[in-house]
What we know:
Blueprint: H1 20-29, H2 38-51, E1 55-59, H3 62-72, E2 80-84, H4 93-97, E3 101-105, H5 116-128, E4 135-139, H6 148-157, E5 162-165, E6 173-174, E7 177-178, E8 185-189, E9 202-206, H7 209-219, H8 242-252, H9 255-272, E10 279-281, E11 290-291, E12 297-301, H10 316-325, E13 331-332, E14 348-349, H11 352-360, E15 361-364, H12 372-386
The structure holds pyridoxal-5'-phosphate.
Amino acid sequence: MRSQDYDRLYLSPPHLGRHELNYVHKAIEDNWVAPAGPNITGFEADICAATGVAQCVALTSGTAAIHLGLILLGVGPGDEVLCPSFTFVATANPIVYLGAQPVFIDSEADTWNLCPERLREAIVDRLAKGKKPKALILVHLYGMPAKLTEIMALAQEFDIPVLEDAAEALGSRYGGQPLGGFGRVGVFSFNGNKILTTSGGGALVTNDAVLAQKARFLATQAKDDAPYYQHSEVGYNYRLSNLLAGIGRGQMELLDERVKRRREIFAWYREHLADLPGLTVALAQEPAGSRSNRWLTTVLLAAPEPEAPAAAVLTPEALRLHLETHNIESRPLWKPLHLQPLFATAPMYGGAVCADLFARGLCLPSGTAMGDAELRRVADALHEAWR
Ligand SMILES: *Cc1c(COP(=O)(O)O)cnc(C)c1O
């Protein structure tokens, strides 16, 4: 990878292949540099083919896709939306854009995603309070599929539509089926740090052609079918540029390769960090039928002994600072949203599981451009921290 700092190992930098420039070049040659054009159509077709979802709408970001997705599910002012606490803030921000209220739910230990028991508790309690949740957002964190069988059964039992935030999980599978098509609406991100990137971009997928048509309409300023500019609804400017979609087409050719390499990186860390006492490469067990794209490899430190002197306790933050001295970037796990000042007053069901993961976890460099020599650098730096 080229960057300002050739020596630095980043967490998950963009990794371009050989064909992106061909698509971008063709777009410029043909003067297709608008938020319409053949690269957009091609990129959408590539996403449909890779995910098995019938309809795709390429957008400016994953956040925009979540925003439109919630609108398609009818979320509006005063509504409640169920959402995992353990996720990136972009999962929940669009709930707030719409004047709705997030209701947060804890993780379970196997996948770190929505806990089906806490979810049932939350739904039953919200119903008892006289408020039926308008929608449910589920997330596949770090590429690990959530417990879809249990979660989708609950959504069906209580008749709550699902938005599947698969921003981190392009190329992951559940029961042999690619993620993204389990809910009424699915979302992918092509931000610079994701497994594939358009520098910035996103996509909304759905098997419902009417919803897809509505998403396209809302993403292009909600212009009515008239020869002049007539508008009956609020619209947005969320369509992806044909130039960036060209990058996306080149990237989509690489999906299988990139998933394979992320999984190799995960396996490499597992093997070469196995001797570090008190450290485990996390999420090692993929639940039966699940296949993670291993977007980021994460580690967990053992909880400190109750009487251990503070100086003897190795924290994720101490480890992060140690890796920095070797010019290696690492990151804490997502800080749970119920612990964010922004969401201090939002309802929360459970919370101990994701708070504990946040206190003990760290994400390691997982970019697919890394070779074994770079991985060795990370492992050596970690071993040094234990000496
Ligand atoms: C990256 C991400 C998003 C947002 O995608 P953008 O393209 O950055 O807007 C949403 N949810 C999760 C879980 C993400 O990791």
